[in-house]
Amino acid sequence: MQLFTFLSLVGGALAAASTTVTFRLPATHQLPNPFGLPPSTHATLTAAGLRLSAPLTTSNTFVFHNVSTGSYLVDIHCPTHAFPPLRLDVSPSSTSGTSSGTPTEGLKVQAWETYRGNDWDNKGEVLPVLEGGVIEVTKVLGQKNYFSERSTFSVFSILKNPMILLGLVSMAIFLGMPYLVNNMDPEMRAEWEERQKSNPMNSLMGGGASGQPGAANPMANFDMAAFLAGSSSKKDNNGNGNGDSRPEDNGGNGGNGGKGGKESRKKR
């Protein structure tokens, strides 16, 4: 009799030191139909030397029985969707507890979002705990993509390139301009030709000014290096030097010729 009483007391103490925690997946914008999750979806409750697992029920919940006091890491494993990790704390209930915890069978249950790779005390957003230790997981990170779509070839994707569009427009102008000129009014065509002749770019690119076929191109002997250095070209300097020396040499030779003629006349 005494042994039976002792065992009942021990069982009651153990029952009072554990509780049941339920995680529920409601319908959200990221997960509009939780009933479509694969049946292999399950949640794990991990602590030092302890690992509990709960499958997904028909009511979209994960039920963990006999959860004792401690701090746990909650992971929801799903082949199609990714869920954030959670932190679950189960502690003895007290009157000084915070409003985020709900006493359940003598224990207080609290839950937060947590971050992998950070300090365990770095808690995220607080998750509300409903009556009976029910915690709703409303945040879904997104769907998992295991395959990438094969890229397809499309002519429209090439035409969307700005460089291709610019080349097509330039080609259309280049090919269509002769037809436009041939279909112009004779008076308008003559006026257009006169404007083309008076264009200063034609004199630079065509080899001479308008109306002067034999005129030299002023850009033919342009020395870019000398222009950037701030000095005139060597060719121009040599030409100016030779031009200045020739008259003096000719004059000197002419003077010498005159003196020689006078001396020969005197001798005669």
TrEMBL record:
Origin superkingdom: Eukaryota
Q: What InterPro entries does the database record attribute to this sequence? A: Beta_sandwich_EMC7 (IPR019008), EMC7 (IPR039163)
Coiled-coil blocks: none
Q: How does it sit in the membrane?
A: Single-pass membrane protein
Keyword Signal carried by entry: yes
**Region (Disordered) residue spans:** 192-216, 230-268
Query: Could you confirm whether the keyword Cell cycle appears in this record?
Result: no
Q: Which residues form the ER membrane protein complex subunit 7 beta-sandwich domain?
A: 37-166
- Any stretches that span the bilayer, and where are they? 163-181
Q: Identify the stretch annotated as signal peptide in this record.
A: 1-15
**Main location class:** membrane
One cellular component GO annotation, for this chain's record?
EMC complex
Q: Where does this protein reside within or beyond the cell? A: Membrane
PANTHER family in the record: ER MEMBRANE PROTEIN COMPLEX SUBUNIT 7
Q: What is this protein called?
A: ER membrane protein complex subunit 7 beta-sandwich domain-containing protein
Q: What is the lineage of its organism?
A: Eukaryota, Fungi, Dikarya, Ascomycota, Pezizomycotina
